[in-house]
């Protein structure tokens, strides 16, 4: 039994490697534990402090489940959007239990903690051909531009073409400028004992 609560967005860290489930070896869905820890600035000490971690069970289905299985790992910082439900079941002792489950519609890495790379799927040959044509056109335009800017024989190649310093600042200095809360993934080890003690169902 599931009681629908509403659509929410939660940030946190993956507590363990995602687990797939399905019938007869076929992938039907994927699930993982998400630990979300709220941080706040202590007005007295001017230091970041962590509140108790809230644990959610995240479930994904269909193509999203397949992508989660190939993309997420324990400790990853993620952003999850979906429907928040309360799952209820009876334990072996007959006691009624419940847990929060987030049925995900979108999942991605939280870029506040690192960088990521997206590998898009090719949905059709037509789209692939269209993309190849666009790439060829771009290459031709780049070649034409390079030819137009090429120096004439005997001319000073640096005259009026001194390259500007376009080197981006190091990531470390960029991170230092933004005051961020501390890394809250320290609690990812807690979920195993918590789940075992509550007798939660496997999926």
UniProtKB/TrEMBL annotation:
InterPro entries: NA-bd_OB-fold (IPR012340), Primosome_PriB/ssb (IPR000424). Residues 129-203 are annotated as: Disordered. The keyword DNA-binding applies. CDD domains: SSB_OBF. The keyword RNA-binding does not apply. Transmembrane segments: none annotated. PROSITE patterns: SSB. Residues 130-153, 193-203 have a biased composition (Low complexity). One of its GO terms (molecular function) is single-stranded DNA binding. It comes from the Bacteria. SUPFAM superfamilies: Nucleic acid-binding proteins. Pfam families: SSB (PF00436). Keywords: DNA-binding. This is Single-stranded DNA-binding protein. It comes from Bifidobacterium goeldii.
């Amino acid at each position: 039994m599931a009681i629908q609560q509403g659509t929410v967005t939660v940030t946190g860290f993956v507590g363990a490697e995602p687990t797939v489930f399905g019938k007869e070896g076929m992938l039907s869905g994927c699930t993982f534990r998400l630990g979300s820890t709220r941080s706040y600035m202590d007005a007295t000490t001017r230091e970041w402090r962590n509140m108790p971690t809230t644990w959610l069970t995240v479930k994904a289905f269909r193509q999203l489940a397949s992508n989660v299985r190939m993309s997420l790992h324990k400790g990853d910082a993620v952003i999850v959007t979906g429907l928040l439900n309360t799952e209820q079941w009876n334990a072996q002792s007959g006691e009624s239990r419940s847990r929060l489950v987030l049925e995900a519609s979108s999942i991605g890495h939280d870029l506040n903690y690192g960088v990521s790379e997206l590998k898009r799927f090719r949905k059709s040959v037509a789209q692939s051909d269209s993309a190849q044509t666009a790439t060829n056109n771009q290459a031709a335009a780049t070649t034409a531009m390079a030819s137009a800017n090429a120096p004439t024989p005997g001319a000073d190649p640096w005259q009026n073409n001194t390259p500007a310093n376009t080197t981006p600042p190091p990531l470390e200095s960029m991170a230092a400028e933004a005051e961020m809360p501390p890394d809250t993934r320290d609690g990812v080890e807690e979920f195993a004992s918590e789940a075992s003690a509550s007798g939660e169902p496997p999926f």
